[in-house]
Amino acid sequence: xxxTLPVIDLGGAVPGAECPRASGLAAALDEAFRGTGFCYVAxxxxxxxxxxxxxDAARRFHALPAGEKQAIAIxxxxxxxxxxxxxxxxxxxxxxxxxxxxxxxxxxxHEVDPDDDAFGRPLQGPNxxxxxxxxxxxxxxxxxxxxxxxxxxFNRLLALALGLPERFLDPHFERPTIWLRLMHYxxxxxxxxxxxxxxxxxxxxxxxTFLAQDGLGGLEVRARDGRWIPAPPVPGTFVVNVADMLARxxxxxxxxxxxxxxxxxxxxxxxxxxxxxxxxxSEIACxxxxxxxxxxxxxxxxxxxxYVIGRLDRNYAYRQRTG
Length: 323
Description:
single chain, alpha+beta, 7 helices, about 20% strand
């Protein structure tokens, strides 16, 4: 299936502002994010072998017996195994969601040194790693580091696309909040209800998402006219989408678009979303290029950490049990 979203070719690396290609790429990003809020990025410079290894790690982890996965059930710092039917997207602004997602996942976040003053605060704790999956931690860590490096460079292209200085966003990402999720979507059973999803219609919480897909498809994006359009896998690319905090930061210049997943392939589907967010202490207030006399700021400033913890509290069963 051919792409239904714009494909932006970075040519092997994210260019800096001095590169002649940068202005054209920034304009293409601005157009894509003003429209569907989604695009593919190709030729990113991320080593394909690193991507292959994280998918292999995901398949081996999800093949473990349920008890071994449950031994590292998601902890209070939102790290570990998230079992099927334990998340309901109650904070969805695009659908009334009553059924839990049928997918399962492993969540790793940024590392926090136990000697760091932030250690032990909300979302600032230890990752959990499974036993019995050789090389798992190394593969996941290598992928997180590769995507972190890419995301830092991509931030500068985003800044240019918003008419800002190339390094304007850098101070907000000195201590980024990183969510790396290894998703498994079992095959949708015959006769599944229409409102049973691997991932129910939702928008992402934070800044921006980079998604690696396997070859099966299943991701759909809601177009402005309300149609759901497929976002099929395109080899060698990431699907990139604006999330809620970036839409808010840009005063809705850019669109945080609803999307969903249904796995009708008859096979096990895997994907690896990398959610790239600001420092938990970062204040999100309207960017200077995104408002004016005829377009005043639409949102009050908000601390990112307070916002995202509120979203987690509404959507995850373990947080409701622990208060």
